Amino acid sequence: MLALSGVSVKSLHRHLLNFQPNQIMASHDYDDARGGGYDDPRQQQQSQDQLGYDPNYVPDSVKSFVVHLYRHIREKNVYEIHQMYETSFHTLSDRLFKDTPWPSVDAVAHYVDNDHVFCLLYKEMWFRHLYARLTPSLRQRIDSWDNYCSLFQVVLHGVVNMQLPNQWLWDMVDEFVYQFQSFCQYRAKMKNKTEQEIALLRQFDQAWSVYGVLNFLQALVEKSNIIQILENEKVGLEQFTSTDGYDYNGGSNVLKVLGYFGMVGLLRVHCLLGDYHTGLKCLQPIDISQQGVYTIVIGSHITTIYHYGFANLMLRRYVEAIREFNKILLYIYKTKQYHQKSPQYEQILKKNEQMYALLAICLSLCPQSRLVDETVNTQLREKYGEKMIRMQRYDDEAFAIYDELFSYACPKFITPSAPSFEEPLVNYNQDAYRLQLKLFLYEAKQQQLLSGVRTFLKVYSTISLAKLASYMEVDEPTLRTILITYKHKTHAVDSDGKVISNADVDFYIDDDMVHVVESKPAKRYGDYFLRQVVKLEGVINELDAIKLD
């Protein structure tokens, strides 16, 4: 066995298969943005029958794949596992299983000594492929939940002696959260459910429950002791980041790394629920200002910063959101060419576009362009320059743009509660999204008067309240209210409970005089010279390539 379980096989033995993620997408119609081309699983089944899919038929290349993968896992050959997982699995999927599932786990089990843990891992990949290429039925969604329960129970309560690639461990957590989100969206579309589907939903009401998902993620964090490991690492008592989470002393990295990525999973789930404060609190043990295990896997890096930035945006911590969006967008700009052959490449580009939209929102609500690198700023202006100018007007057209960008770039919010089975059946899959959009636009509309205040404060170093009131065409009591609102809206509470300022222009009032304090950004010459050096090297290379007669 790959893992010697401390619980009985009977208690762990659940049913069937599982798949991998391509990241979440928000879309204007808010439908499930990932998956295959069949809206109705019955159409999918009919198509599979027409293609002659036999779950018990195992091609020779698949036999070879499972036998070698099993051997490499037993030998803890992480490099070969990673190659087979990242390359061979996707190559075989493209060649043999473009429109059908992989062979069933029962069909391949005897090639791997019926190893319980390997079969759970195989089913995890089986379902991931199913979600990516096809549309899972309700029964398959429930079976996938059972498989995750069994797999995580082994990790939490067994003695796991495997070493798996960080990419695979990240994908497990990522897919787990994705399938939870997908199930919530599916369950919320009650209008066209069949009687059989409703009966299954009633029978398996605990499948993909929000409590179950949060409990598993929290259990992985606690059982792995990852928070204490990261604390000990700061004082030199542990090596986790320096070894990329791997154990070079013959142990296993599975529980520790799943616990580590579990913190990112908790952030993501809480963002889907609209609980941004709790989400950020779950991520606190990871210092995102430094390189870490989360930066090793590109999908993990992007997902972490996307949700971290979005949560800060919704909590009005615009400066922090701008700073982190800028860093990740610059990183993607410099490295995306190295990921062109990656299965996650399309998702990298999608998240890249979404984060530019979120950065445009942040900079419109909190003009802090000095925090943005010139390269990122150039890309931003090309994509959203015209819209950002219109967003400063705070009229109906501006709010329509805020609506458009938020709807495009936000996570796919979920309503985790069980549906009402009473007639008439209604769809409620967009309720959570509409609520978050409403709260966001309410916040944006409160900024309407602040743009006018900011414009005048930028012009004057001191100005009387009476004069400023006349310019803004309001009386003095109203102006004082506006100025207090400006103070409130340009300040937020950080994760440590301290009040921080997001303002590029601040002020104080003394004897009915407004004194303006404008922050002077430090000029950064280094970036400019580095860019010129790179350009010069390019010119020199071009000159060297010229052959003179």
Automatic annotation (TrEMBL):
Pfam families: Paf67. Residues 30-56 are annotated as: Disordered. It comes from the Eukaryota. Residues 30-42 have a biased composition (Basic and acidic residues). GO terms for biological process: formation of cytoplasmic translation initiation complex. It is found in: Cytoplasm. Keywords: Cytoplasm, Initiation factor, Protein biosynthesis. PROSITE patterns: PCI. Component of the eukaryotic translation initiation factor 3 (eIF-3) complex. Belongs to the eIF-3 subunit L family. This is Eukaryotic translation initiation factor 3 subunit L.
